[in-house]
Design a protein that fits this description.
With 249 residues, the chain is of the alpha/beta class. The protein has 9 helices and 15 strands. The chain has 2 domains: 58 residues, Winged helix-like DNA-binding domain superfamily/Winged helix DNA-binding domain (Arc Repressor Mutant, subunit A), CATH 1.10.10; 179 residues, Rossmann fold, CATH 3.40.50.1360.
């Protein structure tokens, strides 16, 4: 198992259990204690976990702060890839799409780059990923947020008000029965305007994003036409009562 795969597995375990003893992690990952301790030290130095006496804890998702892009990019990778692969099959050539900021949406961009699409990108990595072949990329102006590379602010909002798209591919910091929510106020506003500018909104989020609530409300679930998420949680039953088309991959 490669270091990135091991570390992703450790993060996934702590996402589920929040706190584990080192021996429990060793048993679940299936590698030596020395290897697990090195991986845990690396994750701790990157701010993804906190070491405790005899184990590690999951650094709680804050209601006020969203994890940095580098931190999010190594979490729930298998789930993000499965979501992205399905979402890519739902995208039709010739359509105009708004690509939200975030690592799950970036995986979608990786799979459709080069196709005959018009793509409106809300972060720098996605714009760069899409700018190949027949894909026409529009990168909105605005303030680039450090660490996340998303584009927000009055300039971004003004441009979104003048656009029309077929589909908004939206990520989420959190979602529950009351709707989709986000850690940042500015990003939440950009998402709202992208929803208003699109004929259809598709929510792409792994199962760990469901069942809790972040600081800023984005929209009610009635605004979502399609939800694509991952297996792994018993908390998803209520999604089928939202009226959205739900696909669990």
């Amino acid at each position: 198992m490669l270091p990135l795969e091991r570390q992703t597995r450790i993060l996934d375990l702590l996402e589920t259990h929040e706190k584990l003893l080192t021996q429990e992690i060793i048993d679940k990952v299936g590698v030596s204690g020395a290897t697990v301790r090195r991986d845990m030290q690396d994750l701790a130095e990157r701010g993804l976990i906190a070491r405790t006496h005899g184990g590690a804890i999951h650094i709680q998702r804050s209601l006020a702060q969203e994890p940095a892009f580098a931190a999010k990019s190594v979490r729930m990778q298998r789930e993000k890839i499965a979501i992205a692969e399905y979402a890519a099959t739902q995208i039709h050539d010739g359509s105009t799409l708004i690509f939200d900021a975030g690592t799950t949406i970036l995986e979608v961009a990786r799979r459709v780059a080069g196709r005959r699409l018009t793509a409106i990108a809300l972060d720098l990595p996605t714009a760069q990923m899409l700018a190949v072949g027949e894909t026409e990329v529009l990168l909105l102006g605005g303030r680039v947020r450090s660490n996340s590379f998303s584009i927000t602010g009055p300039w971004t909002e003004e441009q979104l008000r003048g656009l029309r798209a077929d589909v908004f591919l939206m990520g989420a910091h959190a979602a529950d029965e009351r709707g989709v929510s986000n850690a940042g106020v500015e990003e939440a506003m950009v998402k709202r305007l992208a929803i208003e500018s699109s004929h259809k909104t598709m929510l792409l989020a792994d199962h760990t994003k469901f069942g809790w609530r972040a600081m800023t409300q984005v929209c009610g679930l009635e605004r979502i036409a399609q939800i694509v998420t991952s297996k792994g949680s018993s908390r998803l039953g209520w999604l089928h009562d939202t009226g959205a088309e739900v696909q669990v991959v």
